[in-house]
Amino acid sequence: MNKKTFVLHLKKCKFRFNNREQNFYWIWFAKFRKEPLKLLWILNLFLIYTFSAVAHADTTLADDCKAEGQNSTHLNGSVCVNGKPVLTPEEMHNKIFPLYENMKNNKDSFEYYQRKSLVNCLADKNWVNNPSLPTEPVATGKLDIICKFHKFSWQSFAYLTALGVSKKPHFLEMMPKERVFKRKPDAWDFDGDINLIFSNIQQAATSVVLNDWNHNPVFYQQSMNKKFYNDIVLNQLNNSQCINEIDSKRRQFDITAGAIEIKTSWKVLDPSDDASSFFTIHRNIMLNGKLVKNTQLALLGMHIVRKTPKHPEWIWATFEHKDNAPDCDNIKSDDETNWTLYNPNSSQKTNTYVAGQPTQVCRKTPHGAGFLAKAGLTVVRDIKDLNAGMADIYQAKDAIWKNYFLVGSAWTQSINPFSTNGKLPPTWRNEIGGSSLLSNTSIETYVQNPKWFDIEHPNTDRGCFGCHIYNPDKQNALHLSHMFNAAKDYGSCIVRTLHNKKSEAPFGE
Hints:
The chain contains 12 helices and 12 strands.
């Protein structure tokens, strides 16, 4: 049976699934069709868990309908009609399968979802009014673990975008990679990248360019906080020979907890662009081989990567401007949004590089939650709650950051989905917490994982950890950061004592 015949059988059975859902079921069928016993086992589980989940969900939603009125819309998107819950096939699909996967892996997970549906993940105005760096996501129980990680990400963003000692946002006071990875690193200051010429236009993983609809490339910048800077400079990790000594285990080294790395993406603002909704800077850039001075650049995206005592794998978060690109599954013909990286009048294939042409961009997996992501429903709901809350807080201050949102956060966890202690990759053995298929449309345009990636590749690292991995037999964990790809051979490593002392203020700038 081929895929076309399979889809026809689904239709005969009056299953009204969209193309994405049809792909989901076809993958399962194709994977086990030559193993009848496994296929029968999966179908049995499908029937048992699916209808069990529907029954439980139906009961819970019916209670919500009674509480909220005969005709109402519940906070989870379900509709009450005459006091009874109504689920569309798509809603049922989206609700059941994350539940199904969690029910197999954790006997308490369904009870967890029932309770979690009544709990909101709330933003805190103090993150903006009195910004400070959180030290670690700390949860009080199962109900708020995922929420606490996303709160950690938003609080970090609020601090890094708040004004620092030089009256610039903290993230612009951080030390750019170019000033560190050279023969003699610059002394620490708060100038950031203000005197640099922006020239990096290649995306990570693919090394190709993201062109906007004015035919200009998007620029990228990487920076580090003082904690990370000290680790690199004191240990001469700008020198590849020093890194080789660590990799060969002749020297012991760990990046210190409190290290922060950020990566930002910037669009060249054209006179026809509306700059009012963007955070902007002016920098000298190399454009088409020519130096263009004092160019206005708009912030499109920001990765924030933080190492904490309990998370040696780092905690990964990414933010975007709200008008970067639409979700691939939710492109509307009547959408009047003025997208930065998407043109509704173009027939060009999405997320595909064409030399010399603008790139048509859409978001494959909103909030990084795939079909079988652990706690996928909670991940999306918590992020949406926080984004709405932070937008309101920034709106009240008329701050430009109201136009930016958390795409998602990722970390690793033990086989217990509610553990807060991360482990170093390879991560699929430990599982990825939160947004397991996380990516940023302006930074990883061409390597976004589709929603069904974890089904087709169950033993493959994915999301952030698809690239940020290392071989523990041959490499030190410092290679989780791609910052060290910029190290060069500056001769013999002459570090007498490898500095790796803990600071009195490990999370300070």
